[in-house]
Amino acid sequence: MKIAVVGGGISGLSIAYNLALRKAGEIHVYEKNWITYGSSTRSGSRFRVHFWSEENSRFAMESIKRLEKLAKKMDWNPIINRTGYLWLLSSEQEIEIFKKSNEMWRKLGVGGVLLTTEEVRERYPYINVDGLAGAFFGPQDGSFHHDYVCFGYYSLAKSLGVVFHQKTEVKDIVVSGGKVEGIKVGDEGLEKFDVVVLATGAWTNIIIEKTGIKLPVEPLKKEVCLTEPCRYFIKPLVIDLASSAYVTQTLKGEILGSIDYPLPQGLGDLETELGFVKAWARAVAKRIPILRNCRIMRTWAGYYMMSIDNSHIMGRDPEWPEGLYVAYGYSGHGFMMAPLVGELLAENILTGRVDELMKPFLPTRFKEDKLIPEKLVIG
Ligand SMILES: Cc1cc2nc3c(=O)[nH]c(=O)nc-3n(C[C@H](O)[C@H](O)[C@H](O)COP(=O)(O)OP(=O)(O)OC[C@H]3O[C@@H](n4cnc5c(N)ncnc54)[C@H](O)[C@@H]3O)c2cc1C
Predict the structure, then answer these.
(1) What angle do CA 264, 223, 309 make, to 5 degrees?
(2) Which has the least CB within 10 A, 120, 155, 258, 338?
(3) Which residue segment(s) compose the domain that 222 sits in?
(4) Angle of helix 54-71 versus helix 92-107 axis, rounded to 10
């Protein structure tokens, strides 16, 4: 079989690696810029197993297990660090939601701890608890290094014979008789393929809509701030639900974080905005006053690809041209899902089997009205 994977981000790399591992045939990855150009190396590099929907929680749990296993095979150390996530809650209503969700998480074996304001003060003396009603701590969550994970997958895939075409844009998917025939690359003619997998992140609508397919997914620009390094003292990712700001510290000591800030919708430039920086800095200085004089060194922007239910989309609709598959719409939590997406999609392409964990995320859920509403989105 000849398979084209379009997009050289974490999804495309994981899919290509998993296909090669299963000896799928001739696998080519096409990337219009360079490997990791997209959101994959513009992320916050965090993972969690705590989602409000059971489907996303289960998927993330299994995905992280895959990444931990793979770490042993990679030439690059992905630096997986279970630092925990600390959710700061400002109302009884938020506490109730986390209590209820914790019952579901406990059943899955990943229960966390609800903390009183006093306990937050004792455990995290750097946090200003004014206005807080309590907190939830999820010890199973943590961080990785997104560059090292991507290049780990890249080198494994390459060693298994995957062919990479960087600086090569796929302009169109050619369909004939209800089947994928191949792709058009640059100004050249048809490159023949049996299967085309779109792992094109925020740019997916541009290419998939040429085939007449439209799914409810839109890109949304997001930004991140990084400070100068300072003494390591913030271990978990701290998310202040009231302000929507999140903050954590890299192992190098930089303070990293973001905030939900109104940025232009859709694809545009990837410049960062001073207004965003100010909003984040204000929220962080209020919650962690010791950071007031910490200097911001760098900002960057990328895209969340938001689906209508904030859950990712993988696989195919039987009404689509035969041989066409997608993996996108991750809604801000895609890096952590990609290890399992790659594995299950590779199996699906090669055997037709739809794993129980994959089933809820099929693109058919939109027309069947079987959405997975995920309300716990960060940033
Ligand atoms: C600020 C920010 C913080 C985030 N934090 C986290 C986090 O902490 N944890 C987490 O799990 N997720 C996080 N995410 C989300 C995560 O980064 C994405 O969900 C994930 O990287 C998506 O990977 P991808 O491979 O699908 O897409 P991308 O990494 O965007 O890759 C798509 C690639 O396709 C290429 N491409 C597009 N069109 C074509 C074409 N026609 N031909 C050839 N190539 C093409 C692009 O150049 C690009 O390289 C964050 C995202 C942002 C923006």
Answers:
(1) 65
(2) 155
(3) 218-307
(4) 60
Assigned token pair, 107: 């059943």
Claim to verify: residue 178 and residue 251 sit in the same structural domain? no
Looking at 262, 277, 307, the residue that finishes a domain is: 307
Name the residue type at position 128. N
Residue at 86: amino acid letter = L
pLDDT at residue 341 tops 80: yes
* DSSP state letters, 309-378: TS--EEE--TTSPBTEEEEE--TT--TTTHHHHHHHHHHHHHH----TTTGGGSGGGTTTT---------
pLDDT digits (tens, 9 = 90+) for 215-273: 999 999 999 999 999 999 999 999 999 999 999 999 999 999 999 999 888 999 999 99
What is d(CA 163, CA 28) in angstroms, rounded to the nearest whole number? 5
Same domain, residue pair 302 and 202: no
Ligand 1 atom having least distance to the Cα of 331: 19
Q: What is the rounded distance in angstroms from the CA atom of residue 247 to the CA atom of residue 86?
A: 10
C-alpha 233, offset from chain centre: 26
State which of 42, 144, 200 you would mutate to test the pocket of ligand 1, scoring each by most atoms of that ligand within 8 A of its C-beta. Answer: 200
Task: Among 18, 29, 40, say which to mutate for ligand 1: greatest number of ligand atoms within 8 Å of CB.
Answer: 40
> How many domains does the chain divide into?
3
